[in-house]
């Protein structure tokens, strides 16, 4: 084996453990925050209030309007409120939507954020921000949006419904899969990615059997941390481009779309990424074809199986294939309109993904 890589570590400060939310005031002390705005999604006010009471007088407000893909208007209101309250930072509690809103504030005002993730989406580990204006999502990388501290408390994930836990967990695995064959893959991130997939593949069946089982919840969040770190450290390829197009242009649901597409994207790429395929086989405990195992696993976990089931029309396949192939980006296997069309047609119908990327009978 010969090595050839460039590795730049992101500054990560992570507190992990059941009840870790109690360490929030100490984390704010480390950063020097005195007046923070708490952010969460609608429907997550109870969790938001838990954070508010953990903060006591240091909390100057709670906003519960974080939604998927950070609409510019929502971001502008939150950015203005930070100024009117004289806040010196934010605590974002929730999934990628709440953390994304925190990042929009950090981007505009250069204020530190502390993230308390309650899904497995992984945004808390990345310097990537997103903002949606008139239906167009713009994304970028900026170190100032990377949370200064992340508190992973598995107790806060106990309320995540089983279906959402499964799709969010497979969404996390997708980051690890693409990190393993990324153009900028590095040995340490590959180890984290492999371990992240192993942890989630072990934890999700436990959660499906018992949503509140403590070790399953802890293991799933641990896997999500590793997969999020892999996402933050590498460049994503075809799978993420497909999901970005399907979510952005057709408004398909985020984690469910990742769940359906992943086995197909992996089946397409795995003949061209043998080291990644071997790592994933080890992580999933199979002797060959990790794409096949992922497909089976998502069936066993009762996850959605086809893009048709998520509301996509067959007539939109060509449009998405066009969008995904209109720009060039790194992917282990060369991409053509026809091959992406075949992949999408198989995923739309929920047909068994085969390793050459074309649908089987
Ligand atoms: P989300 O944050 O919208 O959460 C999904 C749903 O789950 C919401 O209704 C939320 O209220 C609910 N929820 C969250 N935690 C819960 C809990 N513990 N119990 C019960 N319900 C809970 O969705 P997500 O999948 O976490 O994140 C997706 C968003 O994050 C997308 O906009 C995506 O683009 C973005 N994202 C960004 C990055 C990045 O690096 N910038 C990475 C991953 C995802």
UniProtKB/TrEMBL annotation:
* Family annotation (Pfam families): ADH_Fe_C (PF25137), Fe-ADH (PF00465)
Where does the Fe-containing alcohol dehydrogenase-like C-terminal domain start and stop, copy by copy?
Answer: 166-348
Supply the InterPro entries for this chain. Answer: ADH_Fe/GldA, ADH_Fe_C, Alcohol_dehydrogenase_Fe, MAR
Write down the Gene3D superfamilies for this protein, in alphabetical order: 3.40.50.1970, Dehydroquinate synthase-like - alpha domain
Arranged from A to Z, the UniProt key words for this protein are: NAD, Oxidoreductase
MF GO annotations: alcohol dehydrogenase (NAD+) activity; maleylacetate reductase activity; metal ion binding
**Which residues belong to any copy of the Alcohol dehydrogenase iron-type/glycerol dehydrogenase GldA domain?**
11-154
Which family does this protein fall into? Belongs to the iron-containing alcohol dehydrogenase family.
Name under which the protein is recorded = Maleylacetate reductase
Organism whose genome encodes this protein:
Mycobacterium aquaticum
